[in-house]
Design a protein that fits this description.
The protein has 428 residues and is an alpha+beta fold. Helix content is 18%, strand content 30%. It has a 6-stranded mixed β-barrel with strand order 2-3-8-4-7-6. It has a 4-stranded antiparallel sheet with strand order 14-13-19-20. Bound molecules: 2-acetamido-2-deoxy-beta-D-glucopyranose (8 copies).
């Protein structure tokens, strides 16, 4: 499957050599830092988020999230790649605040587990989207270095874009000589408040791969997502003031009785292994166990675990059976099926109380049964409508962030696994 990420993919594979040259002296110079690095992961709809639009209603925010989700999935599965730039993919829901350069310049980037590198707009800018924070000015950073564009590797980059290196600071940890993208010609659907992308993909020269040597336990990151702030008023026990968290490095509490772990797979979906692909073997809805048929099973890596997509998109055949199973379970409860008022084509029900006490849903990833809560399975979209937080995908599915709320999700690039641990992210 071709993906819109193949421009990033080309970059990633083409700068392996540069990367090796750069890394070899970087690693020795800086001491390891003791602990895991924690950063707030700011949901764009949190009042403290720079992207928060106070004139929207909560329902509009939910509806916008569903639209972004659809846009993102369309780009995942689109075979087109006509974009003239690197900064096109802004549909993520979460932001992190890191810094680039010396002295450190704050950088609010969209978290994107579907791309590999940090990308920001740089001066001088031939074509940029407007942004509120000043553009990154390489001249103002004493540690900035442009990589030579004469190399075959760099010529694969789009015209007018540069791969650069500079110090990246996460919390109080500074990591020198990190390759990032300095875009001089950019476009895309950015609001102008964020400055770019923090790509957390798993490619060979991805950001995580580069900084692994500075992290406790190597190339490992995790996050814990609190319930969507636009919905928190619905739930009695969610703490609207607590933030989702992102952790770089391996916590020493990453195993326990409730942690389930599934292998990361390599398959043909992305030549550069940017995506976190796993094998979904089936889904249980109450007592009904839906397993993928033999054909689908032959296609092993069939789900991308993604932080930037809101909903979960299931492989086509699986979705139809899943939806029927849910509707079957809900039939007994006298729930009226109704049209999705957001226009996202979801399977929706008329409901007059807060949380739909749906059937127990378990995702059977290879070696990892992830039991969803009702709040992961359904999304309330207005005063009287609750919808399945799942939609029909095509080809490879995507496991979105709604299904990941209140799990500590760990991405282990050393052991090639993803783990899920049920966690109250509002108190941890
Ligand atoms: C905020 O939402 C309103 C209502 O939809 C819209 O008109 C306005 O452009 C939005 N503001 C920003 C900065 O996006
Ligand atoms: C980002 O972090 C810097 C300090 O590291 C701070 O000055 C800045 O206000 C933060 N920006 C946002 C939007 O939180
Ligand atoms: C929230 O609390 C109210 C009153 O305490 C209760 O009636 C309602 O069922 C609770 N809602 C949920 C989702 O627990
Ligand atoms: C909500 O979170 C804040 C900050 O983490 C904490 O001080 C407060 O006690 C929490 N409230 C509840 C009800 O959990
Ligand atoms: C985890 O590490 C911290 C500090 O590095 C230590 O205080 C704590 O006891 C450790 N926990 C476990 C379960 O090993
Ligand atoms: C349902 O099927 C999956 C395989 O798709 C299996 O791993 C799981 O144990 C089954 N669960 C039940 C309750 O039968
Ligand atoms: C869901 O599973 C739990 C046990 O994990 C059980 O107590 C509960 O009754 C189940 N709920 C439904 C609706 O089947
Ligand atoms: C994973 O890799 C790390 C470091 O490479 C190692 O310490 C650990 O024991 C491995 N296994 C698990 C299950 O985490």
């Amino acid at each position: 499957m071709a993906t819109p990420y193949h421009s990033l993919s080309a970059i990633a594979s083409s700068i392996v050599i540069l990367f090796l040259l750069v890394r070899s002296n970087a690693q020795d110079n800086v001491p390891h830092h003791g602990g895991v690095i924690s950063l707030n992961m700011i949901h764009r709809d949190t009042p403290s988020s720079p992207l928060y639009n106070s004139s929207l209603t909560n329902w509009q925010r939910v509806s916008n999230a569903l639209r972004r989700s659809r846009d993102r999935i369309n780009r995942f599965t689109s075979s087109e790649d006509e974009s003239p730039d690197h900064l096109m993919y802004s549909e993520g829901d979460y932001l992190v605040n890191i810094s680039i350069g010396t002295p450190p310049r704050p950088f609010i980037g969209i978290v994107d587990t579907g791309s590999d590198l940090i990308w920001t707009q740089c001066m001088p800018c031939r074509q940029c989207f407007e942004q509120n924070p000043p553009l990154f000015d390489p001249a103002s950073s004493s540690t900035y270095r442009a990589l030579s564009c004469m190399s075959n590797e760099c010529r694969l980059l789009r015209p007018a874009s540069f791969c650069s290196i500079d110090t990246v600071t996460l919390g109080s940890t500074s990591i020198p000589k990190t390759i990032f993208g300095c875009g001089h010609q950019n476009g895309g659907d950015f609001s102008g408040i964020e400055s770019g992308i923090v790509g957390l993909g798993r490619g060979a020269v991805s950001f995580i791969s580069q900084i692994g040597g500075y992290l406790v336990g190597g190339k490992y990151f995790s996050y814990c997502l609190v319930p969507n702030p636009a919905m928190s008023f619905l739930s009695n026990n969610s703490n609207a003031t607590s933030s989702s968290m992102m952790y770089f490095g391996r916590p020493n509490t990453s195993s326990g009785p409730e942690v389930v772990t599934t292998p990361l797979l390599s398959n043909g979906v992305s030549a550069t292994q940017t995506f976190y692909i796993v094998e979904l073997q089936g889904i249980s809805v109450g007592a009904n166990n839906i397993t993928l048929n033999a054909d689908a099973k032959a296609f092993k890596g069939n789900m991308i675990i993604d932080s930037g997509t809101t909903l979960t998109y299931l492989p086509e055949l699986l979705y139809d059976s899943f939806k029927s199973a849910i509707e079957e379970e809900l039939k007994d409860r006298d729930l009226e099926v109704k049209q999705d008022p957001t226009g996202s084509g979801l399977s929706c029900f008329l409901i007059k109380y807060d949380i739909l006490p749906g059937p127990n849903v378990t995702f059977h990833f290879k070696g990892a049964d992830v039991k969803l809560k009702s709040s992961n399975t359904f999304v309330r979209v207005d005063d009287e409508t609750v919808c399945l937080a799942f939609s029909r995908g095509s080809g490879v599915g995507t496991y979105g962030n709604w299904a990941q709320i209140n799990y500590l999700v760990g991405y282990d690039l050393e052991n090639k696994t993803v783990s899920f641990q049920p966690t109250d992210c509002t108190t941890s």
